[in-house]
Please model this.
Amino acid sequence: MKLLLTSAGISNKSIRKALIELLGKPIEESKALFIPTAIYGIPGGAEIIRKVICGTIGDPFCEAGWKSLGLLELTALPTMKKELWVTMLQETDALLVGGGDCQFLCYWMQQSGLTEMLPSLLEKIVYVGLSAGSMIMTSFGTTYGNHTLPKETHKSLGIVDFAIHPHLDHEWFPENSLSNLEKLAKTLPVPSYAIDDNTAIKVIDNNVEVISEGKWNLFYPERKTNS
Model:
């Protein structure tokens, strides 16, 4: 399993180097597929998707210099013959999963059949998450709500046994202060990484490494004492 769980994409040289190490070859020789589904779960999603693909918003992600870039929309997959999109996955080197709404993304990961494929898929390709695309692989996810999804829909897949809180101290997300994220982390049953947009979590099987040119903190659950 090879994961690069970012807050904002390939935002600096250290994260880019980590991606190349996971790929085992230059980005320019690697094929990528971009999953934009989570972005549809937030206001203005269609325009944001265009900007992410064109590289006119945020840090490099789709425009990181890939040999080729394809688009894989999860909401379309249940109506397609499986061999059509499975072949695309088998031929790719990296799966780029964009940010947005964790619950919306998690639902369509499951409905599309991609969740079932992840264990075998992650043996062959590199999973690169951005914000919600990173969070759904952990044990904690969030939601913007206002969707007509089943109430029991999960917000994360629990592939790794920690939580990620992206966009630490970002001006767009004033609620993501270090003190607020620390309070949230103490309510969770797993360790939590609060990471800014210059930080990523690199995972190879059971080995976890923080890649950062910015700020991050690791918080542990609050221990409950017997009264």
The longest helix spans residues 13-23.
